[in-house]
Structure formats: structure tokens, C-alpha cells
Amino acid sequence: MGEYFDWVNVDKKEFICPGDFDYGNKFHETVHKDSVPLLALHTLLNERWAGDHVLFLGDECNVPEDRHNYVYGLLTRQYKVYQDGGYTWDMVFETYRNVSGLFKETEKDVRPEIGYYLEELRNYEEYAHNEYGIDINDPFKGLFEMTGRRRRYVLNHTRKVCYSLEESKILYLDHTESDFADSLPILLGFGRSCDPGPWIGDVIGVSDEIPEGYSLLQEVYLDW
User: Fold this and answer.
1) Bigger pLDDT: 26 vs 118
2) Angle ∠(137,140,145) on CA atoms, nearest 5
3) Considering only CA atoms, which of 179, 157, 187, 142 is closest in space to residue 32?
């Protein structure tokens, strides 16, 4: 079946799943610059997830125990508290909240899933998992209200650099240019089927303007 990936916020203990947006969630399926999950990620990074640490996490491996990398270190500590086995993603799924349902683009898929959860809660309360973190007394409150939108610049606040799909060249290692891909899943990806992204552990944001003191990257690579 292949490894599946989700966008994970390790600080707020939240994630979004491309599948909830009716979009493929294998690694390279979310690389397209106009993919709906990437647009939703931009909106989160600009608002709810501003200043947090995120990564594009696969479900078939564990992150390394690296205390010098903020994201790896925090996930390792959370996993040790979890103590239920499985991969890092299993801990995320069981203990984080899936906030895909905040976006109106997910209503077709998420509304029925919440209905299945409520039915399971009535019949098998012990096994029901509240993946979307809903209030069972008002299960759809606050959901399906946001919409995804790309911002012009992706910012690395830690390194004070940024790139733009309009102004930076998105390149493969052979220096051929891509006109459809966004590097962000590669820069922040971690899984069995991809190399660890070099921006994992950095604080990432988005903006329609370049902040003072930030450098625009002329080239960003899709592999290395």
C-alpha cells in the first residue's frame, strides 16, 4: 500500500491529513504546488500554527532520538510517555487532534467520519477514538469554516531565509526546473520512503511579504 504522510504540529499536538481533503497522502502526492492540503497548511502556518514546529510525517518509521533537534526530541519524549508501541505516527494519531475538519474543503469526507464516530461512541464507547477532538454535545461547532490559501513566501524563521514559487527556481539535482512542485514537503518530510528534510526542527511560516532581515533563496531543491 505504501507509506502515508500527514502534516503534524508537535507544539499544539495537532495534525491535518491530506486524505480528509480528498487528496492522496503518499509522499509525492502532496508536492504539487496547488494541492489543497498545502493551501490549508499555508493558512494554518499564517494563523493557528504561527510560530510552531511542523513536519510532514510518514506512518512507517520512528524519528531518531536526537535531543539537539527540537522536533525529534519532543516527539521522542512524547512517545516515551505514550508507551503503547507502534511507530511515531501511531502515537500522533492516538494523542493528537486531527484539525482537518476546520476547513470547508474537508466537509464531504469529515462530516461522515464524525457521524461514524458518534455511532461508535453509542455502541462501543470503550473503543471509540475522538480523532477530530469534537464536543459530542455540539459535534460540528467551529468546523468547516476555514479555507486554504497560498501565501507568496515560505519563511524559515530560524535561518531567516525564504523562497517564493514566483521568484525562486524549484530545481531537481540535475538542475532541471519544476513548474508544478513545491519544496515544502521535501524540506519538512520524514519517513521510511524519504530522506529527512533539512528544515525539520526549524520554525516555518508564510507571508505575502519578505520580513526585514530575511534573504530570498534564488534556488530551492526538490531532492539532494
Assistant:
1) 118
2) 150
3) 179
